[in-house]
């Protein structure tokens, strides 16, 4: 099944479990699937690959409005957004089955959590991103900034402490133990949404990619706010004037508002290194020195003419 849908289901399943309505939601999903399958015209529209995905989602939203609980409607429309049209009804049956499994084994899984099935690097990130999409849909715009900052700080904490990075990146260490480490670190000092996202990063992501997945989540939260994150490494810090100028320049370059996440790196000597999406800008003094050295070496090589050997 689509990894992003798996992650989305995991988050929605937690909400349904908390409300005690997992089985009811599963029944509603089955009913939606059967309704689509039993109406030829609706099935044609939903399964027609020539119909734009947005139009299919609109049809489903109108169909489900007021007839199923919001979480079920969200699952159906999310499935229509991430899956090929022909796979939709099969996915709805699968979603219903998964919710029933959670209803049957939820208490056991809560007491003894296990990691999700192992996926490739990008598939694992997509699964965590799917989970984040559901979680972030439930928070206000004002909370997004706090969540982004908390995730960024947590990622930097893990990145800068080798023992912590090794522990959380050890896939042979039981996931319950790794979750305990996370809970000790967060210690109730972060928002509920941040705690959920970090915990699922441990359960649903790849252990050795925990920092990369956390950084991906920072990007996802920023995207939810309509921003792009620019990671800036600075040799000597950035004052307000330089920050404003850098934000303005990067906003023009990226074509969207940009937020800076600044870390100190004295080894750069001076200047900054900026990473924003696939864009990499190295304006550090260290880089300029390396370029100058390469230029000098290239110049020396091009002007050096060996003496001809004199005849005896």
By DSSP (H or I, 4+ residues per run), the number of helices equals: 14
Query: How would you sum up the global shape?
Result: globular
Helix content: 55-70%
Unreliable stretches, pLDDT < 50, 5 or more residues? none
Average of pLDDT: 81
Number of domains: 3
Description:
This protein is α+β, with helices and mostly antiparallel strands and 312 residues long. The chain folds into 3 domains: 3-111; 121-224; 233-297, no CATH class. The chain is built from 14 helices and 4 strands.
Question: What would a concise description of this structure say?
Answer:
This protein is α+β, with helices and mostly antiparallel strands and 312 residues long. The protein is built from 14 helices and four strands. The radius of gyration is 25 Å and the shape is globular.
Characteristic key phrases:
312 residues; 3 domains; alpha+beta
Write the layout of secondary structure elements.
Layout: H1 3-19, H2 22-38, H3 40-47, H4 53-64, H5 70-82, H6 88-111, H7 121-136, H8 141-160, H9 162-168, H10 175-186, H11 192-204, H12 210-224, E1 228-234, H13 240-254, E2 258-264, E3 272-276, E4 279-282, H14 285-303
Parallel strand pairs: 1-2
Antiparallel strand pairs: 1-3, 3-4
